[in-house]
Structures are given as structure tokens and as C-alpha cells.
UniProtKB/TrEMBL annotation:
<dbReference type="InterPro" id="IPR017850">
    <property type="entry name" value="Alkaline_phosphatase_core_sf"/>
</dbReference>
<protein>
    <submittedName>
        <fullName>Sulfatase</fullName>
    </submittedName>
</protein>
<dbReference type="Pfam" id="PF01676">
    <property type="entry name" value="Metalloenzyme"/>
</dbReference>
<feature type="signal peptide">
    <location>
        <begin position="1"/>
        <end position="21"/>
    </location>
</feature>
<keyword id="KW-0732">Signal</keyword>
<dbReference type="InterPro" id="IPR006124">
    <property type="entry name" value="Metalloenzyme"/>
</dbReference>
<feature type="domain" description="Metalloenzyme">
    <location>
        <begin position="219"/>
        <end position="304"/>
    </location>
</feature>
Length: 361
């Protein structure tokens, strides 16, 4: 019996060592974007001028939900994950009232050029000057990672806007992109089958942009099943509600998206594959106006709108110095791709990705 017991213990030990060895502790990155969210809404809380404008129908309810005795209290109500977790354990950039500036380098100041800059590390105004569904000739950091042996087949993207297969160039890159109203494909979980059934049963507000809750849960199910090491998630509702002049819906969507990001962070911190070696890098593709005048209209963005070049960033992860809200300094959106490449230890061509990585330490 003693010999059998020893043999059993040795077998269990070998199984444990083998399972431990299979846990890849190299860095994982989740890049997350919130379309068209202003830095003012992240840092100043509820904009009372816009609440009182014709852009808000449910003024009383919106005030009840998100107003506070100070901008700090208000912004925490709107984005509790940002201000209770990232501000404590990570880094937040872009509060221009404190001298922390984040700016786009592209001059278009709308979505496709903004996402190209985020993903490739370089503006391309000469070739990307519309939101048309043209395949991107530029190579994203997602594609660079997918070319590396240790990340091959471990990169995936999920987006609410249906232009993303073209921005990421899924055909050339080989990266699976679920965007717009695409269904999940392959060997499906029960939840993925359910999502496929119901995503078009929910209200379809915009034919080219699905509701973010579906994008989120498609991404989360894929993460659970496949353990990708590099994940891009693009939430899109905020920009479309803003274009529609629905400030109350815009703010509620921002609040909901913060909760979705919190849900994803909680999941990865409970999973041995992701726990303590996963970075969240969160930003937006462009800013927008801050008023009702035509050249600064809140519903708009683009080269003719004041302030549309101003954005923000939030970064959370194992080797990120917990400085919280940054004061002073200038960062640019094109620094995000080389930062991701540095975290993943992916070599980049300085000619195609010339910006310096952000110093996270």
C-alpha cells in the first residue's frame, strides 16, 4: 500500500508540474477603445451645460444619476471602475486642466484615421481620409504580434462598428475580427449560440453599429474558451448617441461601458492564465466639441471642430507604476502601438512606428 501511495503521489506531482508549466506567464494585453468619448466627461464629470441644453431629454434623471457636490464625485458616479481601480492602481492621462495632455497626430479627427493611429502607431492622412470600408494597407500592432510564433493564433478583435475588419485588415493579418452584427463562428458555446440568436432581436438603433453589450459578451466568451494573449475590444455606442444629439444616452452608455470593462478586469484577475500578467490599455479614437456653437458642437468632431484632437488614456497592469491621475506632460495617441509592442516584446520598424513607447514605470 505504501508503494502504491508513493506512486500515486509522484503521478499527481508530475500532473501538477505539467499543468503549471502550461500556464503562460508572458504578458497579455487587452486594448480597449470607447468611441468618441471626450476627456471632459472622463475628468470633469457631468457637464451641466449640456444637461440643461436641448441635447438632454431626461434632465432630472440624469442629474440624479450622475451629479455630485464636486467634479470628482460626479466623475466617480459615472465611471466608478476608472476612479476606484485605475486611479488607485494604474495611470490616467488627459486631464488638460491639470496640464496632462493627450492629442491625436492625424488631422482628420474622426474614426478610421483615429483607429489607424491607435493600432499602427502612425497617422496616415494621405491614404486614410474617410470611414469607407477600404482595407488598411498599414500593419497594426495586432498583426505584428500575430506574426510572432508565441502570439500566432492568439490575437483576436471584437468591435461594435462594422468597419473594423477593414481597419485591422482581417484578410491579410489572419486575425479573427467579430464586428457589427457578425455571429460567432466555429465550435460554439451555449452562450455564443444564445448571443447569435438574440443580437438582432434587440433594438437595432444603427445598422452599422451593434449594441456594446453584445460585443462585450462575444469577446468575453471567446476569452474564456481560447485564452488569447492579445485582445482588442472596441465599444461604439457613445459616439453614435452623441451624433444623434442624445446626451443622456451618451452618458448612460459611458457609465455602462465602464461597468463592462470592470466585469472583464474582474474576470481576468480570477483566471490563472491572465491573473497578475495582463495589461488593460484604454483610450478613444477622437474627442469632440464642448458646446453648441457650430465650430465647437458637442455632437460633432473632425478637423473643423475645436478640441476634437484632444483625447485621453488609461493604463492598468502588473508593471504599471500606480501614479493615478497624471499632472502635466504631453502624450500622443501614436505612442500606444509601440507601448503595446514593448509590453509584448515585439520588434517594430522605427520607420513605420517611430513614436516612443510610454514610460509605464
Amino acid at each position: 500500500m505504501k508503494i502504491r501511495t508513493r506512486i500515486l503521489l509522484v503521478a499527481v506531482l508530475f500532473m501538477w508540474v505539467g499543468a503549471t508549466a502550461q500556464i503562460d506567464k508572458t504578458a497579455n494585453v487587452f486594448l480597449i477603445t470607447l468611441d468618441g468619448v471626450r476627456w471632459q466627461d472622463v475628468y470633469h464629470g457631468l457637464d451641466t451645460a449640456l444637461v440643461q441644453s436641448n441635447y438632454t431629454e431626461g434632465k432630472e434623471l440624469l442629474n440624479k444619476m450622475f451629479s455630485g457636490s464636486s467634479p470628482e464625485e460626479s466623475r466617480e458616479k459615472i465611471m466608478p471602475f476608472f476612479w476606484n481601480t485605475i486611479a488607485k492602481d494604474g495611470q490616467l492621462y488627459g486631464n488638460r486642466t491639470k496640464g496632462s495632455k493627450v492629442d491625436l497626430t492625424n488631422k482628420m479627427l474622426f474614426s478610421y484615421p483615429g483607429y489607424n493611429e491607435i493600432l499602427t502607431g502612425k497617422a496616415d492622412d494621405a491614404h486614410i481620409d474617410s470611414n469607407d470600408k477600404n482595407y488598411n494597407k498599414n500593419v497594426t500592432v495586432l498583426e505584428l504580434a500575430n506574426k510572432q510564433e508565441r502570439y500566432k493564433g492568439k490575437v483576436a478583435a471584437f468591435a461594435s462598428w462594422d468597419v473594423f475588419p477593414f481597419i485591422i485588415n482581417d484578410k491579410r493579418s489572419g486575425i479573427p475580427v467579430n464586428a457589427g452584427y457578425m455571429n460567432a463562428q466555429g465550435d460554439l458555446s451555449g452562450r455564443e449560440i444564445f448571443l447569435n440568436e438574440i443580437q438582432r432581436q434587440a433594438p437595432i438603433i444603427w445598422e452599422s453599429v451593434r449594441l456594446d453589450v453584445f460585443t462585450h459578451h462575444y469577446a468575453k466568451e471567446y476569452v474564456k474558451k481560447n485564452r488569447p494573449k492579445v485582445v482588442y475590444i472596441s465599444y461604439g455606442e457613445t459616439d453614435d448617441f452623441a451624433h444623434g444629439g442624445k446626451f443622456d444616452f451618451y452618458m448612460k452608455s459611458l457609465h455602462n461601458t465602464d461597468a463592462l470593462i470592470a466585469d472583464l478586469w474582474q474576470y481576468v484577475q480570477q483566471d490563472d492564465f491572465y491573473k497578475d500578467n495582463t495589461y488593460f490599455i484604454i483610450t478613444t479614437d477622437h474627442g469632440r466639441g464642448d458646446g453648441v456653437q457650430e465650430d465647437s458642437k458637442w455632437t460633432s468632431h473632425g478637423s473643423n471642430v475645436k478640441g476634437a484632437q484632444h483625447t485621453w488614456m488609461a493604463i492598468l497592469g502588473p508593471n504599471v507604476k500606480p501614479v493615478g491621475e497624471a499632472v502635466d506632460g504631453q502624450l500622443y495617441t501614436d505612442q500606444l502601438a509601440p507601448t503595446i509592442a514593448e509590453i509584448l516584446d515585439v520588434d517594430v520598424d522605427i520607420q513605420t512606428m517611430p513614436a516612443k513607447p510610454i514610460n509605464l514605470k
